[in-house]
Amino acid sequence: MRLPVRSAGAFALAAAFAPFLIAQKPPEIRPTRETVKTPEQTIILESTSVSTESAPQALGYESDVYCSGYLSSKPQSFPARLVGAENLAEQIDFMAGDLVYASGGYDKGFSAGNEFFLVTPENQIFHPVTGQSLGTYYRYRGRGVVETALGKSSIVRVTSGCTDVPLGTYLKPFEPIPIPLARKTPPAGMGDLPSGKALGHIVYNRESIVSLGADHTVLVDLGAAEGIEPGDFLTVFRYVQGRPEGREIGAVGANWVKVRDPQLAGEDVPRTYLGEIAVLTVGDHWSVGRITDSYRLIEVGDEVELK
């Protein structure tokens, strides 16, 4: 079959540039075909588009994991605590760069270069819905490194501080905490159905902030025992409904209350979605997460569901 002159010329030109076109092979190309008709022939044109699938991204920052803490239902034991400091005559709280004295040395196996978390026990945590005690929250205040180990004491340099470091702070052997990577998907929105997976609550916020939003870290009552892992996402939601307050029946207007109120038992309302939490660290029945999305103000006591 003979090609028309116009088509033969185009074919020769394409053949001349073929080596250059073959050498430039773009990655992740998805072809789409489009048909164009001319009087002489039908030409199939190919256009390309690069995949828009997002790459895994870090779900938090070092401060989110190294300046948070952990929950323990049993009292913790530590090898030593801070009992003095180089600048004790001038200050009572310490920060990065300060030299402090610990109550452990060679007798506790300490040696120069050992690194520790600086930890203090904080509040006893009670479940915001059931009132049950969940344990004690231990807060990371920073990190320190042993510069000189003696018989029964050590000189420790505070290398990083999340907040002030007071005397009495405990030393906990340092272990790196990886920041999880994950691909983010669109958060749940109005009208979306429950996932049917593990359910829990936000139970604590270390800053004691009443109204929470994006970038705050929170403690939830779901952990490894409930199938939670670092890198998971939790949907934050609440059930809310209006209830007349000090008004006659049938009056217009109401204050909102959480539908879990016993007076509203049996009534059914849709979920109000509030945002999303990325899980950073996990314990047996607890997790620390960072709020990545918030459409409305979030509170301790709001419900969460594994996405």
Overall description:
The chain has 307 residues and is mainly beta. The protein folds into two domains: 62-173, no CATH class; 194-306, M1 Pyruvate Kinase, Domain 3, CATH 2.40.33. It is 8% helix and 42% strand. It is built from two helices and 21 strands. The protein has helices at residues 5-23, 62-66; strands at residues 29-37, 42-50, 57-58, 69-72, 80-85, 93-94, 99-102, 115-126, 133-149, 154-161, 165-166, 170-173, 181-182, 199-204, 217-220, 233-238, 240-243, 255-258, 272-282, 287-294, 303-306. The chain has a six-stranded antiparallel barrel with strand order 5-7-10-9-8-12. It has a six-stranded antiparallel β-barrel with strand order 14-15-20-19-16-21. The longest helix has 19 residues, at 5-23.
- Number of domain modules: 2
| N→C terminal distance | 61 Å
| Helix share, percent | under 10%
- Shape descriptor: elongated
Instruction: Give the overall average pLDDT.
Output: 82
* Corresponding CATH architecture of the largest domain: Beta Barrel
- What is the CATH third-level topology name of the largest domain? M1 Pyruvate Kinase, Domain 3
Which regions contain 5 or more consecutive residues with pLDDT less than 50? 1-27, 31-40, 42-52
- What topology, given as strand order, has the largest sheet? 5-7-10-9-8-12
Q: Can you summarize the main beta sheet? A: 6 strands, antiparallel, barrel
Give the DSSP E fraction (strand runs of 2 or more residues): 35-45%
Reading off the top of the CATH hierarchy, the class of the largest domain is best stated as Mainly Beta
Kindly provide the radius of gyration, computed on alpha-carbon positions and rounded to a whole number of angstroms. Answer: 30 Å
Structural class: mainly beta
- The helix-strand sequence is HEEEHEEEEEEEEEEEEEEEEEE
Number of strands: 21
Put simply, the count of helices is 2
